């Protein structure tokens, strides 16, 4: 080997060893910065951070670069931190890209030395108790794509320098000081909307729009990166369960066949976003572009009422008991009744069905998918999937009404009572070999005509004692709701009152019944003969 080649080989080896040494040294510095941070901050829960263990792959909440040379992310939500962030600790993590310390009890001003964290792309400090003004200069964080400082006690104006964060796709500064604050961007003052907080500047295109009170901090890229599970394909699109990097779980519905433009879409979303009720699944965010329309909701871990009623029945399945079915009906009724009094009494759900009803923590029903039918392309044929819920007078599901909502709710009640789907396909029999379509409402009418009322109810309910009278009362309410003539159907606040008359539950939620007209409220329980005779229109 020539002296020149020997020299080049030796130089390459020396350079490689030097790089390894520098990388190891920087990682050691990052590790010490984290140790110093932990030693100086109050903490209710223990962390497995120890000087004797490797920081990469071992320490809770810490992520290193692919080559293991630097700490690039610290995610410690709800860990129990308190007090101010110790100075000269986290700010020494010069390669840090993501810092998530949300949902702790951190106090004090925004850390001034965070200006050293120039590689940050995500900063999530929401749900803490930080106070004082925001930093006047956001230019050190020019790589930020996601910033969430909501639910703190920051005050004053939002600095104009935020408008220089050209990479920003998710911004949430809501729910801070009660003092008036405004977004100052692109050289002009812009009052902050009381109803929504926009991810990014207000006039930005094709960004997620978050509504007031939403604590999420993510962007479209986060959603696309999230692990996703298909929950179901419904009338208006496919719903996914998305779990983000910080363990936030949401439901994302990808809408199909949207037939309205951006302006009309946004107007409808803003109207829906203003509906706040504990029995209405809240719209948290939406996204509109030419090729993609998304809506984001909270995730309900128990799944839909449809899956509970019509999922596989066997030893591993827990049947819905009678009390839960009552609470599902009552909660959903309250939710729909509240919807009907919104927007001066002009709002309609338009797609009430068991797959759009979920259980909250108290096992009351909550209705989802509000306002979506009006977005669908009017050139499409009527949707067959909703046929079992569709009132007789409704030809086009995009033109639903409050009376047709009542009809759909009545079908939902019949589902809860019978355990049967609104439409069932059975073998035709008789040697013809064809299938027979059985509509639930027609089937219940036929059974009641033969005075076989007991045959209506789900066999899974027969195990519960002393509920026969309540079941018959609920059946009578359901049959009132599915009256063929719209004018013979009760209004939803009246339905709430009737269900509450079946059994009183301990619940502070009575807001949906305030609009009930006492003069028009029908008697919920008729005599025994009337209970087995459905009202017909």
UniProtKB/TrEMBL annotation:
Comp. bias (Polar residues):
508-537
The record's subcellular locations are: Cell membrane
Domain Protein kinase as annotated: residue spans:
225-505
Q: Where is the signal peptide?
A: 1-24
The Gene Ontology CC terms held by the record are:
plasma membrane
Keywords (alphabetical) are: ATP-binding, Leucine-rich repeat, Membrane, Nucleotide-binding, Phosphoprotein, Repeat, Signal, Transmembrane, Transmembrane helix
Please give the chief subcellular localization of this protein.
membrane
State one molecular function term (GO).
protein kinase activity
**InterPro entries reported in the protein's UniProt record:** At_inactive_RLKs, Kinase-like_dom_sf, Leu-rich_rpt, LRR_dom_sf, LRR_N_plant-typ, Prot_kinase_dom, Protein_kinase_ATP_BS, Ser-Thr/Tyr_kinase_cat_dom
Name the membrane topology term: Single-pass membrane protein
Q: PROSITE patterns per the record? A: PROKAR_LIPOPROTEIN, PROTEIN_KINASE_ATP, PROTEIN_KINASE_DOM
Matching entries from Pfam families are given as: LRR_1 (PF00560), LRRNT_2 (PF08263), PK_Tyr_Ser-Thr (PF07714)
* Annotated spans, Disordered: 506-537
Binding residue positions for ATP:
253
Write the protein's name.
Answer: Protein kinase domain-containing protein
Source organism per UniProt: Musa balbisiana
């Amino acid at each position: 080997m020539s002296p020149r080649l020997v020299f080049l080989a030796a130089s390459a080896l020396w350079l490689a060893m030097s790089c390894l040494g520098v990388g190891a040294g920087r990682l050691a510095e990052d590790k010490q910065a984290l140790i110093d941070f932990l030693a100086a901050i109050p903490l209710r829960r223990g962390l497995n951070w120890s000087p004797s263990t490797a920081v990469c792959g071992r320490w809770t909440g810490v992520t290193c670069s692919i080559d293991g040379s630097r700490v690039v992310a610290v995610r410690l939500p709800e860990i129990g931190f308190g007090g101010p962030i110790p100075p000269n600790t986290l700010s020494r993590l010069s390669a840090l890209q993501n810092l998530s310390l949300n949902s702790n009890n951190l106090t004090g001003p925004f850390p001034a030395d965070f200006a050293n964290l120039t590689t940050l792309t995500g900063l999530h400090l929401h749900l803490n108790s930080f106070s004082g003004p925001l930093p006047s200069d956001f230019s050190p964080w020019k790589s930020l794509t996601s910033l969430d400082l909501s639910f703190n006690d920051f005050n004053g104006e939002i600095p104009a320098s935020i408008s220089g964060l050209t990479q920003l796709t998710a911004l949430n500064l809501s729910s801070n000081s009660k003092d008036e604050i405004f977004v100052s961007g692109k050289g002009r003052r812009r009052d902050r909307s009381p109803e929504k907080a926009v991810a990014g500047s207000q006039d930005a295109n094709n960004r997620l729009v978050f509504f007031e009170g939403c604590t999420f901090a993510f962007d479209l890229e986060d959603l696309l990166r999230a692990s996703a599970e298909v929950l179901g394909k419904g009338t208006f699109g496919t719903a996914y369960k998305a779990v983000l990097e910080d363990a936030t779980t949401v439901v994302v519905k990808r809408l199909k066949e949207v037939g309205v433009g951006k302006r009309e879409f946004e107007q409808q979303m803003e109207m829906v976003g203003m509906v706040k009720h504990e029995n209405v699944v809240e719209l948290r965010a939406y996204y509109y572009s030419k090729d993609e329309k998304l809506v984001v909701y909270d995730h309900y871990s128990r799944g839909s009422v449809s899956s509970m009623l019509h999922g596989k029945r066997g030893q591993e399945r827990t049947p819905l008991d009678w009390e839960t079915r009552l609470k599902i009906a009552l909660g959903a009724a309250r939710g729909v009744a509240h919807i009907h009094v919104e927007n001066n009494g002009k709002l309609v759900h338009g797609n009430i069905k068991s797959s759009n009803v979920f259980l909250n923590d108290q096992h009351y029903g909550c209705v989802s998918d509000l306002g979506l039918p009006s977005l669908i392309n009017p050139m499409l044929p009527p949707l067959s999937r909703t046929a079992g819920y569709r009132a007789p007078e409704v030809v086009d599901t995009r033109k639903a009404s409050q009376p047709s909502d009542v009809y759909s709710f009545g079908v939902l009640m019949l589902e809860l009572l019978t355990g049967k789907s609104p439409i069932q396909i059975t073998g035709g029999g008789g040697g013809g070999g064809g299938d027979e379509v059985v509509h639930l409402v027609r089937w219940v009418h036929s059974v009641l005509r033969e005075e076989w009322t007991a045959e209506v109810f789900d066999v899974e309910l027969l195990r519960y004692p002393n509920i026969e009278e309540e079941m018959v009362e609920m059946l009578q309410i359901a049959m009132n709701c599915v009256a063929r003539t719209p004018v013979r159907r009760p209004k939803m606040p009246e339905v709430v009152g009737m269900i509450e008359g079946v059994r009183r539950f301990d619940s502070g939620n009575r807001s949906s019944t305030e609009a009930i007209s006492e003069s028009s409220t029908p008697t919920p329980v008729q005599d025994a003969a009337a209970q087995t005779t459905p009202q017909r229109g």
